[in-house]
Amino acid sequence: MATAAAKRYARAVFELAHDEGQVEAWGSRLAQMSEVLSDPELTRVLTNPTISTEQRMALVSDLFDGDEATNLAKLLIESDRVREVEAIATEFRRLTDEAADRLRATVTTAVELSSKDRDRVADELSRRLGKEVHLDVLVDPGILGGLKLQYGDRLVDASVATRLQQLRRRLAAS
Q1: pTM for the full model?
Q2: Domain-ending residue, one of 43, 67, 97
């Protein structure tokens, strides 16, 4: 879950990107920033108060070739928010999807879904919600069977593991 600060940064970047017609470009920049700045060793350097702010800023200037991402990275260093870059990128992606009337969903199954089954789940969810759906598929053998579907703040848990757990509780309560 994104912090309030991460949401503010993402909203500000989204509004700037939207006004400039650069939403996709900023999405790519933020994804790159998230990937680079999420490296634990680099994060330690960029958040280390014993290293001067100027040295940390010079490092990100070298990493991002002086584009707009550099300015954002420097701002994150100044405000001690480098660790929130991943949450900012995630929130930006959510805002982008919301503006495009898209929805990201994650389906978790015990076995890998065929492409036909993936398409069927995405199409059915898209039809029910009236939005374009981008589906991420995870495999978790621990759910035994069935599936878990998460989109937005909703979770539909139709897994065998959960059903067995519910049955155990009912039997124990009897």
Answers
A1: 0.73
A2: 97
What pLDDT band is residue 153 in, cutting at 50, 70 and 90?
confident
- Domain span at residue 50 reads 4-97
The DSSP line for the chain is: ---HHHHHHHHHHHHHHHHHT-HHHHHHHHHHHHHHHT-HHHHHHHT-TTS-HHHHHHHHHHHHTTSHHHHHHHHHHHTT-GGGHHHHHHHHHHHHHHHTTEEEEEEEESSPPPHHHHHHHHHHHHHHHTSEEEEEEEE-GGG-SEEEEEETTEEEEEEHHHHHHHHHHHHHH-
Q: pLDDT per residue over 105-151, tens digit each?
A: 999 999 999 999 999 999 999 999 889 999 999 999 999 999 999 98
Query: Is 167 found in the same domain as 88?
Result: no
pLDDT for residue 62 is more than 70 = yes
Residues 71 and 23 in one domain: yes
Q: Which of 75, 97, 119 is the last residue of a domain?
A: 97
